[in-house]
Design brief:
The protein is built from five helices and six strands; from the N terminus they run ααββββαββαα. The protein is of the alpha+beta class and about 180 residues long.
Length: about 180
């Protein structure tokens, strides 16, 4: 039987079991390829876990931020300081500023830093996630967004992300 283009929906009657056969076939394809991602966490559990990670770091992050503010030269960047040659450096995070983007900037750890977020805040950046993030945004960029949003409340964080992606010639991804 030949079905004209656009008339394919008329051949499924839902009475003769065609629809159930299609669902069975789709389930067999999924089972063969193993494309099933089983995650027992709910959205609430995932958010709660993220909040627990941030809460665990919060006191140290506040101290790092106050230290950043104390060393700030007025341009949103901490004062340049000499780092030891043997000091560990944070290099696995992409740093995004309003007009610049660094793929592998080297931010030295201080001896008292326990978390990588603490190192980033000390240097004027904050990550988008408390554990294993890949992108950090400068505090200066967030302060700029805050001032724009105060003037124009319709300017959303999504619009800011699109602006930064356009300025840096980067495709917009959902995690940004």
């Amino acid at each position: 039987m030949f079905v004209a283009p656009g008339d394919g929906a008329f051949t499924l009657s839902h009475k003769g079991g065609e629809h159930e056969a299609f669902e069975d076939l789709a389930q067999q394809v999924v089972d063969m390829h193993g494309i099933r991602y089983a995650d027992s966490r709910t959205w609430h559990n995932w958010i709660e876990l993220q909040m627990d990670h941030w809460t665990l770091q919060m006191d140290r992050l506040v101290n790092a931020y106050l230290n950043y503010c104390y060393h700030d030269m007025g341009d949103g960047l901490p004062a340049p300081e000499e780092s030891e040659n043997s000091a560990q450096c944070l290099t696995d995070t992409e740093l995004v500023n309003l007009f610049s983007k660094y793929h592998h900037a080297m931010l030295p750890y201080k001896p008292h830093h326990l978390y990588s977020n603490e190192v980033l805040i000390y240097h004027g950046y904050i990550r988008c996630s408390p554990v294993l993030p890949t992108v950090a945004v400068s505090l200066w960029t967030l302060a700029t967004y805050h001032q724009i949003h105060r003037i124009c409340p319709w300017f959303s964080i999504q619009a800011q992300c699109k602006l930064l992606c356009h300025l840096h010639d980067v495709c917009l991804h959902s995690f940004l």
